[in-house]
From TrEMBL:
<keyword id="KW-0472">Membrane</keyword>
<feature type="transmembrane region" description="Helical">
    <location>
        <begin position="184"/>
        <end position="208"/>
    </location>
</feature>
<feature type="transmembrane region" description="Helical">
    <location>
        <begin position="50"/>
        <end position="73"/>
    </location>
</feature>
<keyword id="KW-0812">Transmembrane</keyword>
<feature type="transmembrane region" description="Helical">
    <location>
        <begin position="259"/>
        <end position="280"/>
    </location>
</feature>
<feature type="transmembrane region" description="Helical">
    <location>
        <begin position="147"/>
        <end position="172"/>
    </location>
</feature>
<feature type="transmembrane region" description="Helical">
    <location>
        <begin position="93"/>
        <end position="112"/>
    </location>
</feature>
<keyword id="KW-1133">Transmembrane helix</keyword>
<feature type="transmembrane region" description="Helical">
    <location>
        <begin position="6"/>
        <end position="29"/>
    </location>
</feature>
<feature type="transmembrane region" description="Helical">
    <location>
        <begin position="286"/>
        <end position="306"/>
    </location>
</feature>
<feature type="transmembrane region" description="Helical">
    <location>
        <begin position="228"/>
        <end position="247"/>
    </location>
</feature>
<protein>
    <submittedName>
        <fullName>Uncharacterized protein</fullName>
    </submittedName>
</protein>
<feature type="transmembrane region" description="Helical">
    <location>
        <begin position="119"/>
        <end position="141"/>
    </location>
</feature>
């Protein structure tokens, strides 16, 4: 049971941390480019990015349970000796994750307190680009260390940005009206296409490469509930929102975009489950139940943290 709770925590933590990281990226991009879309979405993006320190704190639950989560942490022999000594070992794993999470949290603090100049934003995006190429491999791909994907980091970066945009659509801030809603719709459409494209091309390249470790990764996801899981994720969280976003009336309606954002969030959550759960074999079901409970608790805790900050008189400055 302890192992299932640890695995559930990892899954919930990955799903929870996507929107805060994506919100930071959007705030950094807007600081460089400007635009009414950032001003309209700021009331949602700013408090969501402010949750990054909470996500960083949540990593402690992952760090203390590494042997229960990752096969290379329990037995270094599952990877090549050079890989185990130079990359996949607990100290370096924790250092890489800590640098990324603390760096993102510092960037969020600079942006939210009005200290994020364009230079800081540019350097911050470069730092994010570097770290997002590393930590998704650590947190997700290393659950099955024989599988590698050079596009995985880019796919997770798009996933995080799409999660942030979907949260903004669901929250529908006051600044989102008939003039700014199409901007959000365009961003949602472009990022959604990016997620679908990278995911599909990674599958095509890996599968038709006919390499046993890559084939085994997808074969584990073609049994049990996983084909249905990814099917629902792609259909309900990808294709249906894509078709909705092609309709002019939907693109101009904050209420319709709220539905689109909700569908995308469901699809992204199911996709994270599809990426993570098959690595744990028969115990994946218990981990999924634990993850749903942990994720609910994290969302409640996040709402309480933001409400408490407001009562204490803490106010995030405007962009």
């Amino acid at each position: 049971m302890t192992e299932a709770l640890a695995r559930g925590w990892l899954l919930a933590w990955i799903a929870f941390g996507a929107a805060p990281a994506g919100s930071l990226v959007l705030l950094l991009v807007h600081r460089i480019t400007g635009g009414r879309w950032g001003e309209a979405l700021a009331p949602v993006l700013r408090p969501t990015a402010a949750l990054l320190p909470l996500a960083a704190l949540g990593f402690l639950g992952v760090a203390v349970a590494l042997p229960a989560l990752y096969p290379w942490a329990a037995d270094p022999g599952v990877v090549k000796p050079g890989v185990a000594s130079l990359y996949f070992n607990p100290p370096l794993f924790i250092v890489r994750s800590a640098v990324a999470l603390l760096g993102w949290s510092v960037l969020a603090g600079l942006v939210l307190t009005g200290r994020g100049s364009r230079l800081v934003a540019g350097l911050g995006l470069a730092f994010y680009g570097l770290t997002i190429s590393l930590v998704p491999v650590d947190w997700i791909l290393s659950l099955e260390p024989r599988f590698t994907s050079s596009a995985f980091g880019a796919g997770i970066a798009l996933h995080q940005v799409l999660a942030a945009l979907s949260v903004a659509a669901v929250a529908s801030p006051r600044g989102l009206d008939g003039r700014t809603a199409p901007d959000l719709a365009n961003l949602l459409l472009a990022t959604l296409l990016g997620v679908l494209y990278v995911g599909l091309m990674s599958y095509v390249v890996a599968w038709y490469g006919d390499l046993p470790p890559k084939a085994a990764y997808y074969l584990r996801r073609e049994v049990g509930p996983y084909p249905a899981l990814i099917g629902v994720a792609v259909a309900a969280g990808g294709l249906v929102p894509f078709l909705f976003l092609l309709v002019g009336a939907v693109r101009r309606s904050p209420g319709a975009l709220r539905l689109v954002g909700l569908l995308v969030l469901v699809g992204l959550t199911l996709r994270v489950c599809w990426l993570v759960l098959p690595a744990w074999g028969p115990s994946a079901g218990v981990a999924a139940v634990a993850a749903s409970l942990w994720l609910t608790g994290l969302i409640v805790l996040a709402r309480l943290a933001l409400r408490l900050a407001g009562r204490l008189g803490w106010r995030l400055r405007h962009v």
